[in-house]
Amino acid sequence: MSETGEILAQRYSFWYGAKQALHGIELTITPRAVTALIGPSGCGKSTFLRSINRMNELIPGARHEGEIVLSGTDIYAPSVDPVNLRRRVGMVFQRWNPFPKSIYDNVAYGPRLDGVRNNKGLDEIVEYSLRRAALWDEVKDRLRQSALGLSGGQQQRLCIARALANQPEVLLLDEPASALDPIATQKIEELLYELKSELTIVIVTHNLQQAARASDHTAFFYMGTLVEMDTTDRIFTRPQQERTEAYITGRFG
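Given the sequence above, the corresponding structure tokens read:
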């Protein structure tokens, strides 16, 4: 019996046209924990991340083999609606991308699509989501102002709040702090620590220090294969594979 938010990849391979990007990935992502995907550029970690909510299939010529199972259900099963899947599996990108709307309307966007029309209900969802994203106290007096007036770090946390408003089981983050200053980065990392008690978090990062600080488990990808996955402590102090140790210690990458 799978737990809510547990992700299993079973013999999962992925192609962009003729180019194979992932080769037979087998891994288990633990629910209510932070899992970091690390590895050099082009190694397949973002491809795998975007497979979890089927974003990759929007690319012409893309195809896959094998399974990704979320909470006991194959996400590629005919009964799974990709739009509904993307509500269950929220995504935050490297460059923050708030809508050119008010702070309030950004967070209320998903619930409105789901049919929430009651103003009181929307108010509660917006406040709850902004609180969970550690942003409420900074924006509560300017909810009707443009989201584009926020700082980069605030806009990124707003994008997290927007994803959280759909009450996802999983939150995917693709290099969420790579364009942020150290203080904003620290806020994002603290936020992930707070959120992991409620949902599964998967983060792609090039920053090994960030992976070491912010994650419970780490998976090392290289040339489209999963080389090794373990607790973050073991990956960074006692890796089993020579390639993992070489990457961690900076001998390549």
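The mean pLDDT is 94. Try to locate this feature in the token string yourself.
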